[in-house]
Amino acid sequence: MTAITEFRNQLPAPEYDHPREERRLEGNPKRTTWNHFTNASGEVHAGIWACGKGSWRIAFAPNKDEYFCVLEGRCRVIDENGHAAEAGPGDALVIPAGFKGVFEVLEPVRKHYVIVERQP
User: What angle do CA 60, 104, 108 make, to 5 degrees?
Assistant: First the structure.
């Protein structure tokens, strides 16, 4: 039987990282990920992500989409043409497959995320 994943009843080990040096634009923020769910095929991941202030370039693979909803703090995603989408508590965004641009954390942020990585 498949069970429902309740984030509040789980304590996954946190994973820490920083933006790669060649992608960093401002600061070197520590990023923390608590992955609560990965499906059997490894194509879907869901959890909580937190990050300090800073900015870096992002480039999504052509098979990877991310939905997220900000719980606290503020962030901005800027595409290659300079169009910016800002999100604060309660706001949700989708970063589509193939997206290239900048991810900027304006205030330390915490968000729920769902990432879908389709098999090529």
Answer: 120
At 72-100, the pLDDT tens digits run: 999 999 999 999 999 999 999 999 999 99
CA–CA distance, 1 with 10 (Å, rounded to integer): 19
Alpha carbon dihedral 63, 22, 73, 85, in 10-degree steps, equals -60
Query: Torsion over CA of 57, 60, 66 and 70, rounded to 10 degrees?
Result: 0
Which pLDDT value is given to residue 1?
52
Amino acid type, 84: A
pLDDT, tens digit, 9 for 90 and up, residues 55-68: 999 999 999 999 99
d(CA 29, CA 38): 25
Residue found under tokens 């900027």? 104
- Alpha carbon distance 63, 28 (integer Å): 27
Dist. CA 27–CA 54, nearest whole Å? 5
Query: Looking at the domain that runs over 14-117, which CATH code has it been given?
Result: 2.60.120.10
Where are the chain's structural domains? 14-117
